[in-house]
Amino acid sequence: MATYKKTGAKVKKSQHSIEEKSTTAEVFNTLDETASKSEQWILNNRKVIFTVLSAAIVVILGYLAYQNYVQEPREKEAADELAFPKVYFEDAMNSSVATDSLFTLALEGAEGKYGFVDVAANYSNTKAGNLASYYAGISYLRLKKYQEAVEYLEKFSSDDELLGPIAKGAIGDAFADIDQMEDAMDFYFQAANLKNNNFSTPLFLFKAGNIAMDLESYSKALNAFNKIKSDYPTSEEAKNIDIYINKALYASKN
User: Fold this and answer.
1) Tell me: domain 159-254, CATH 1.25.40.10, correct?
2) Would the pLDDT of 11 be above 70?
3) pTM for this structure?
4) What is the pLDDT of residue 96?
């Protein structure tokens, strides 16, 4: 009896081994067939494949050449052009006398040199050209030319922690100065939400909250003031924020 079981087991094991070998052979045959079909497809379409690869290589090489021989020199040229009007701009920001004339020089240029307007127009696809739009917007804002200020500030884009929010907030300032309070509040909230930091966020939340109070949007004002208190307790705006919270609470109940 024991011998029979051993023999039967051996037979089954042998059959199983044969099946495994058969399955393995089928898998390899399938792989061979697939490889053959792939090779045949490549042979049949080699011209198309070669054309596509060649085009991709041309695009990559063209992009690298453009970056090295066109864009980088252009970036340097734009940065050099931006340096001149920045001197007038910084003088105007640090001076209390004749600032209008300094901002005008910064915008329009002098001595055959570009101002912010020209740099922004002629180097729009460069970092310096983008910055020129920011400086032009702030300069126009200081000159109380609000339409131009908004136009240039909206052209500017930045991932910088402060410049991006300040540009949005400056648009809010422009709208506030011409009494378009809904627009001003909207841009202040955009500025507050653009980056999360202890300077620009509470500053523009505070501005948005105060305009919301003027517009009798007390819930928006209360949310803004409460956020300053809870999230930015060490900010300048948080020092007397309880007064503003209580004002908003009182106004909302009357």
Assistant:
1) yes
2) no
3) 0.74
4) 79
